[in-house]
Design a protein that fits this description.
Layout: E1 4-7, E2 10-13, H1 24-28, E3 31-39, E4 42-43, H2 46-60, H3 68-82, E5 87-94, E6 111-118, H4 124-129, E7 131-137, H5 152-163, E8 168-172, E9 178-181, E10 185-189, E11 194-197, H6 208-216, E12 223-226, H7 231-235, E13 239-244, E14 248-255, E15 258-259, H8 267-283
Parallel strand pairs: 7-8, 7-14, 11-12
Antiparallel strand pairs: 1-2, 1-6, 3-4, 3-5, 5-6, 8-9, 10-11, 10-13, 13-14, 14-15
The structure holds pyridoxal-5'-phosphate.
Pyridoxal-5'-phosphate binds next to helix 6 and strand 13.
Length: about 280
Amino acid sequence: MPRTAYVNGRYLPHGAARVHVEDRGYQFADGVYEVIHVRRGRLIDAAPHCDRFERSLKALRIAEPMSRAALRLVLDELLTRNGIANGLVYFQATRGVAPREHRFPTVSRTSLVATAKHLKALPPEQLENGVAVVTVPDIRWRRSDIKSVSLLANVLGKQAAVERGAFEAWQVDARGFVTEGTSTNAWIVTAAGEVVTRPLNTDILAGIVRGLLLGLLEDRSTRLVERSFSVAEAHGAREAFITSSSSFLLPVTWIDGIAVGDGRVGPVTRELRRRIMAHVESQST
Ligand code: PLP
């Protein structure tokens, strides 16, 4: 089935989908985006993604491109036109097209672009053996809570990871504490059995899977602590993992070339992934 993209009210062949050269997303990264997982043709956790999209727009004072209900119709139509059962839907809104000047244009219409793609099942070895991460300095601006399309620091971080043979980079603040991955939230399980992730503020994105997992852990069977953890603490962790909408939860078994615990995927990580996937299944049936 040929791919179809949505651009400002039109469904177009993916290869022919274009925005104007003076779109402020292209010129200034003046826009925000979302990525939602699709399972059996259904959007997983669409409501919190739409909430975050609206929060990001509001933070940058970009007008909503359309109502939430209309956006849902566009996304569903895109899934149908692309025949997506399991995949990802991406959408981004920018401050629109205007002559290139830094200040907000007095007149502009929010641009909305959306694409969808199929996802293959995760490589079984990633789940069985875990993945490697490396640490890099967090060189991003100070509003990482906004899901802005300005991802240059994340791109450089991920590239550094790839060049060092790792799957993801954990970004580290000036005090030596891990903020988050380049497209994932970071978690460790300490030797004392605490599950630790950085608390929400402007330093990290409020990951939807992060929020989901916190909600699932409210039954108190797991000791959960929202606090910052240092690179040294991560190196000494018993288990570690990352969360994101594209792969939900992936075990981390190497950090900076150091084995996490005994270097194998641990029981807490396995149990938390099982709980997340049960939630995903319940949403998609
Ligand atoms: N942190 C960053 C910087 C991200 O880009 C992402 C996802 O793209 C996440 C965390 C995970 O967020 P979510 O669980 O909403 O996919």
